[in-house]
Design goal:
The structure is a homodimer. Helix content of chain A is 24%, strand content 26%. The first copy, chain A, is of the alpha/beta class. In chain A, the strands form 3 sheets. In chain A, strands 3, 4, 5, 6, 7, 14 and 15 form a 7-stranded mixed beta sheet that branches. The first copy, chain A, has a 6-stranded parallel beta sheet with strand order 10-9-8-11-12-13, sandwiched between helices. At the A-B interface, α7 and β13 of A face α7 and β13 of B.
């Protein structure tokens, strides 16, 4: 029996989540029984997809659903050994016991930091890779627009499109992120949608239209993109963050889909399991050669997970938001 | 030289078109020169797709773009003979000369009325057929929702889905059309969206969700359908009539596309040219066996074409709106 901590959802948020919607719960975890492991959390991932779940799928008074990287500290399991690293979907718990189901042993590349396995080489990365190349059916050299291009998924999607020789326009909401996208990542055009009128800026930045709009935002972003789409354009829908907290405007320009034969399609990362080995090979190479750049926002301490989630919707992250618990 | 009449657009409508946006122009048509035919109009087609064109693509002070059936009355053309029937896209003109380009010789089935070649066996029919079976990738026995199921395209789409063994729910805006869909066509459920709350009625009528939503309306209809869509549902977008006159609400439920992996895709009838022979064979059989039923609204007289177009947006048609000029 070991002391353990959990973050619970104790109240369903109205609009933007607030700290009082969550509680830190002190509890205990049993020792690993035969066939089990005990795992301590190293890193937790905080993601936009968590917001809609808070309205329904996430049970109240139970650990927040989510994923992270942990280390086996006690093993009576046939294949997982003490000290093994695992990726898991066990939620916001700093220590837990598992029979191994849902744990994936992780053998990180020694030349890459462990955190990249929570973003560029994790669910974030394969979401961008599959969404752009499979759902979006991107072809080399096309015209691409990525919303929230300064975010975790958006920044990877924008850079994959650059690697594929595309003309890439990104939108973001802060001058810091805009400068990073412009000066470090090297996008062809960057729009700070809080500082300039989005529709006009997008029209000016896409003189040859848009073949693929990698959609993370919805609302006004989608309305700005639709009239710029080219014939047979594609809109892979990764997220619609503007609508998750009950806000945002209704979308009025969908009629553009008809004559332009636009295809718009939702996806989630588990759809791309069949792409995993190609993705890992490509992305490891791109990261080691510096062709994919990234930013991370690491909050220090398990108890700060709710702050991380709330911060995500307030745009307080640069790149992937992570909670660091221990090395 | 023969007297001829044309309907011109003389002013771009603000919102719903009004009679003053159009003018009847008396003119003349030359005799057919070598290689040409002179054609007299028999039937004109009036269609929802015309509305967005009035804002831009339709030239001012020129004949309204559109299609119809005519008869060759003078021929110096190598293959078209006097008395031949042709389908054409020559617009709202009661007589015209052509070199034959864009005219398709029509050999109607003697057991079917000529008017069906302007709807169930024309562009209307192949729009429904291709949109449902190809863009919508309909599978036998699926759950289907069709908006404006009392309209020209909608009523054909709904009946093809019934022929394919599907559970079919239709929406319409008048009690007359609802009764026809319920009692004559035999849909599984019919919603009069002007008489009952759409979202609640649709939820009640689709206990097994929706696999294919054949979209003709947009706005509140799309918002009602999205939460009812099943995993990997498809939304072939044929029209968004609620938005054509600048009205309608913005769409707020698009985030449903993500987790349900919904695919939404626009199309127009020329996309389905490769389906034409299968379509003609299927549809001729379905019409002759009475499996596809239809309604027509025939306005008598060339000069009533603008009234027909305006009436379409006011829901004054039952089924396909046509202008009958002569037998």
């Amino acid at each position: 029996m070991t002391e353990a901590r959990e973050i619970h959802l104790v109240r369903r948020p109205k609009g933007l989540p607030v700290p009082e919607d969550f509680a830190l719960v002190e509890t205990t975890t049993p020792d690993a029984a035969e066939g089990e492991v005990q795992v301590e959390a190293l890193i937790l991932s905080v993601d936009p997809y968590m917001r809609p779940r808070l309205d329904a799928d996430q049970p109240l008074d139970a650990p927040m659903l989510g994923g992270g990287i942990g280390r086996v500290v006690q093993s009576r399991h046939p294949t997982l050994k003490d000290g093994d690293l695992v990726r898991h979907g066990m939620g916001f718990r700093d220590r837990f016991v598992s029979d191994g189901k849902g744990l994936a042993k992780l053998t990180p590349d020694p030349d890459l930091p462990l955190t990249v396995y929570m973003h560029a080489l994790g669910g974030t990365g394969i979401t961008a890779y599959g969404g752009l190349l499979e759902t979006g059916a991107l072809k080399d050299g096309e015209q691409v627009f990525v919303s929230t291009a300064g975010g975790a998924v958006g920044s990877v999607a924008a850079q994959i499109a650059k690697i594929k020789g595309c003309h890439v326009v990104g939108s973001t909401g802060t001058e810091d992120k805009a400068a990073w996208l412009r000066d470090v990542v090297g996008l062809d055009a960057v729009i700070n949608y809080k500082a300039e009128p989005l529709a006009e800026a997008l029209a000016a930045a896409t003189p040859n239209g848009i073949d693929v709009y990698f959609e993370n935002v919805g609302g006004a972003h989608l309305d700005a993109a639709l009239p710029r789409m080219n014939l047979h354009g594609r809109i892979p829908v990764c997220g619609m963050i503007s609508t998750y907290n009950g806000g945002g405007e209704g979308v009025r320009n969908l009629f553009n889909m008809i004559y332009k034969r636009i295809r718009m399609e939702g996806f989630v990362s588990p759809d791309f399991a069949h792409l995993n080995s190609a993705f890992v090979a490509d992305m490891t190479g791109w990261l080691k050669s510096g062709r994919i750049k990234y930013q991370e926002t690491l909050l220090e301490g398990f108890e700060r997970a709710p702050e991380g989630l709330i911060g995500l919707f307030e745009g307080r992250n640069s790149g992937k938001m992570l909670i660091h618990i221990r090395d």
